[in-house]
Design goal:
Layout lengths: L2 H6 L1 H13 L7 E2 L2 H8 L3 H13 L3 E5 L5 E6 L1 H7 L5 E5 L5 H17 L3 E5 L3 H9 L5 E5 H5 L4 E6 L9 E6 L11 E3 L4 H10 L8 E3 L5 H6 L5 E5 L3 H4 L4 E5 L6 H4 L1 E6 L7 H7 L3 H11 L7
Parallel strand pairs: 4-5, 4-6, 9-10, 9-11
Antiparallel strand pairs: 1-3, 2-3, 6-13, 7-13, 8-11, 8-12
Length: about 300
């Protein structure tokens, strides 16, 4: 019987169910007994044993009995287990790749998931608030944002933190040429879709009158400065040269920025199913961060 025929058999159906269970397992974990699995899946013990044999013969898992202690996972190929479990694509909501750092994160994700054998769909969504919404509406399994933004929503759980300066290099106070940073009449650009930008702006300009608060998305920023519609903003310095052609002065936002605002994290909903081990494997180690840093440094061509 071919592997395809086996997968279409009753044992193949149970192998799929077993793979779904094993998708959150790791080597060393104790497995349910054949009797327990037989009762859970409402099939005979012989079918369960045939399903386990199918997974073992494919190299997806290695099972070892330890007498009275039970049966344990001795080794597991998370990519193959993911394939047996259905192999659906994991969706990750990402920032729009308009900076080298964001292109680097997308490249790192693509590289890490490809190496782990897990299909990946990157959704490029502008603004951390909209990426959070994509998670809440279950349009994405995970989302990438700053740790600062992630901590603003108690419904989110950080799955992996990629460390300082993985999300942005720094933020700065950007002021139009000829205007002073301490001018109380500055018209300030605020992007309500960005938790980081909106909160940092509120910290730099406490009590800003509504008429001086100008809502602007990143792609409108250059035109607003050029047309004299705004005088200042707090913005990601990675993007200033590429997105503002008007003459401006950049000031540091001293005392307001910390690792939380510059660190990229990947998050999931707290009430979501357990993170599959294949995803954890893809995200562990330094592969994502290394690839991202290589893109920023020009050592790696962005691929995503």
């Amino acid at each position: 019987m071919s592997r395809i025929q086996m997968l279409m058999s009753k044992a193949g159906t149970v192998a799929h169910l077993l793979a779904v269970e094993l998708s959150t397992a790791s080597a060393g974990d104790r497995m349910a007994t054949v009797q327990e699995l037989s009762e859970r899946f409402q099939v005979g013990k012989g079918t369960v044993q045939a399903a386990l044999a199918l997974l073992e013969e494919a190299g997806a898992v290695e099972i070892r009995p330890r007498g009275k202690l039970g049966t344990f996972v001795a080794a597991i190929d998370h990519g193959l287990i993911w394939e047996f479990a259905g192999g659906r694509s994991i969706s990750v909501a990402m920032p729009l790749p308009y900076s080298r750092r964001y292109e680097g994160l997308a490249t790192g994700m693509h590289t890490a998931f490809q190496q782990a054998g897990v299909p990946l769909t990157l959704m490029f969504v502008r603004g951390s608030t909209d990426r959070m919404r994509a998670l809440r509406e279950e349009r994405a399994d995970f989302a990438v944002m700053s740790r600062f933004a992630a901590l603003s929503d108690p419904e989110l759980e950080v799955v992996r933190d990629f460390g300082p300066h993985s999300y942005v290099g720094a933020h700065g106070l950007v002021v139009a040429e000829g205007r002073r940073a301490d001018d109380p009449g500055l018209r300030v650009a605020v992007d309500p879709a960005s938790v980081d930008q909106a909160e940092l702006t509120a910290a730099v300009f406490p009590g800003l009158p509504p008429k001086q608060r100008i809502e602007v998305s990143y792609n409108q920023l250059n035109r607003y400065f050029a047309d004299g519609l705004v005088d200042a903003t707090v913005w990601n310095l990675d993007e200033i040269d590429a997105h503002i052609s008007s003459p401006v002065t950049v000031h540091p936002v001293e005392g307001l920025e910390d690792d939380a605002t510059t660190s990229a994290v990947i998050v999931a909903r707290r009430d979501a199913d357990a993170v599959p081990t294949a995803v954890k494997v893809a995200l562990e180690g330094d592969l994502v961060r290394t690839a991202a840093d290589d893109v920023v440094a020009g050592r790696l061509i962005p691929t995503y």
